[in-house]
Each structure stands twice: as C-alpha cells, then as structure tokens.
Amino acid sequence: MISGIQLSDVSIQKLKQRNMGEEDINAFSNLLLEAQGSQSSALDYLGSLSKAELKILQNAHSLADPINVSVLSEEGARNLLAQPDNQGKVDLNNDGIVEVGLAKTIHFPPVNAPQFVKDAWEKATEGMAEFDKAFLQLSMHHSIYGTGINIDGEQRPLKEQALSPSQQWSALGIEKLMDARYSNLEFRVTHDGWTDQNKMLKQFYEQFENELSKGISSSRVSSTRSRNGSDALQQTVIPEQPSHTTDKRGNEKAVEQSQSTSLNLLVMDARTGLYRQKLEEIDAEIEAVNNASTLSEKERHDKLMVLHADKESTIEAVRERRTEDEKRKFTLTRSQRLSENLKEREIKNNIHSYNTTTLSD
Fold first, then answer.
1. How far, in Å, CA of 210 to CA of 222, rounded?
2. Calpha distance 318→268 (Å, rounded)
3. What is the mean pLDDT of the segment spanning 206-231?
C-alpha cells in the first residue's frame, strides 16, 4: 500500500516505467508530503535531504545526473517536489520551459495556461499518434516563445518575454496565435504541398481553435476568419491531389501550374532572402532518418524532433521576415513602392523567360 501524498495513476505508471519499486514509490510520496508541510523554501528543503533521498527524487524524474542542490534554481527545485504527471509543475519566469532539477523541457500547453486551454488541447489531440502530438507541442510552443536560430549567417535573437497567461489566452491573444499558425501552414504547403503532416496540422488548428472558442465564450474567437482563411488556403495555395491527364491540354495546364508555383516560390525567396536549399537539406535528413533501419524508435524520435525543430525555426524566420516586409511596404512612398513592384516584375519576367527556355530545350 502506497502511503504519503496521493499519487495519480499517471504518476505511478511513470514511476514504475522508471524501474521504481513499491518501496521507492512509497518513499517518493512521503518526500512530497513532507515537502508540502514544510515551511522552508524548496531549495532549503532539498538541502536538508540525504544523498539517498535525493537519489529517490533523481530516479522519480528520470534525471541523468545526481542532484546538486547548490546549482538549482527555485523553479528547478520546486518541480523536483512535484509529481511526474506534470500536475503541480511551475514555470516561474513564464518562458514555456519547465525546469526539473537542471533538466529543461518544453511544455505545451504551458503549465501557466488556464484550464480551458489544457482541456482544448486534450480534445483536439485525442487519439493522435504520439509523434504528431510531440511535433504539435514543439510548433505551438515555438509560436509563443520562439527560439534563436542561425539563418543566412545571421543570429536571430530569442523572442521577447511572452505575454502573461491572461493576455496570451484572451480572445485577441488566441486569434494572433492562430493567425501565426495558419501563416506558417501556408508556407509549409507552398514548400511541401498537402502532405499528411500538413493535413494533420490544418485539422488540428481548426479543432483546437474551435475548442478554445468554447472555453472563452464570453470573448468569442473570430471563427469566420479561421474557417475562411483555411478554406482559401486549401483552394489557392496548391491542390491536395494534382489531376493527372494524358491529353495535351491537361499536360499544358499541369506545366503552367508547376511554373506558377515555382515562380511564386522563387519570388518569395528573392523577397525574404531565404535559401530554399536549407529546407531541402533538412527534408533530406528527415527522409534519411525515417529510412534508417539501425535506429531504435527512441533514437528516431529524438533525431526527428531536432530536425523538425530546425525546420520550424527556419519557416518561422521566413514568415516573420515576410510579415515585417509587408509592414515596411506600408511605410513606403508611392514612388518607392512603384520601384519595388517594378523590380519584382523584372524578377518574375526573368524567371518566366528562364523556365520557357528550359522547357523548350
């Protein structure tokens, strides 16, 4: 019989998966109960524990290294004294990264988010494959908090401090978040087409936003924008299933459509300064990892998460640059705007001439 603080079924399952027997689980629950009744700070409480008791906490949270209390933050200390089911975890600096000891993990929904956000997440991801859920956690977290990346030789800084939870999860905050995600998806579809992953993203965004709108019924999210935006995306960016026809007219139409897509991509590259080679290299690495027969499932998962994080960062960098460029254009004079439009037309004409020559050859 397990004594001490009442552990959730999820926590007990995780502790057993971490090779903790009933005696160790019981000792862990007693430590949590004792900490809960202590008047000391989490750091002071941990400092009073023996090496054996710290070892219990290390194993409970599956930490690689022994716990060194002297180098812990208050957040890292407090989360060592929480259950491993993530209930009760804290993010004291609201950066979306939860410190457990020295370990740092991305959490989405953020632990500081209101309960209706966590409920919406559970409903929108119900029955979803674990890899897809992990990928969504990564991409949604990135939209809110961002990461520093190196693109075109330029080091991009981290985003500024995130909004407070009440601002982030207001109707306006949710609308801005989903606008960013649909814009990200538009770029993905332009680059990759309607892959299974992109279809999954579209379905999730629609369902997640719908569930969020229910949670803030007093401040409705603009569902018309999201529905119309996503429908227009699917209709205009690129067809889900290109039609294949053997007649001459159909072939000409397919070639014209391919030229138009390539033209848009190249103009976008010219406007944002993104070398598409980076995304293509990441895609090649992703394919190689998926086809690697020597990797364990965990190794495959970890490598893919790193690659998808790199791809997400690259796409977000381009998306943000494009947004900033559009804002900049509004500040131009008519003469300046005309000059830019003429340059863009020249780029398009040069690309069209190049494609026409290549096809005729």
1. 10
2. 9
3. 65
